[in-house]
Sequence to fold (84 residues):
Amino acid sequence: MLKKRNKVLLSILLIVSMFVGMTNADTSISKKSNSVEKIDFELLELMNATDKGERIPVSIWLQDIDQETVERQTERSIGFTKND
Fold:
């Protein structure tokens, strides 16, 4: 009786793990397709023209947030400041 229960539990565990694995594969594919939209057109052309193992130097531009603007918008939305 105990062996049968263990077999059933193991079967359920395998089915659940396979299902979770399949759903994670789908999300990783969609993340890859969305990342192409974030690449600059010129860089995408360069990537398509170069060999697979060739390195391409790139720079990344980061835009910092203005903390004062964030605090003002938060104060307006919640109705009081952090000093209140």
About this structure: The chain has one domain: 2-78. DSSP finds three helices and no strands in the chain.
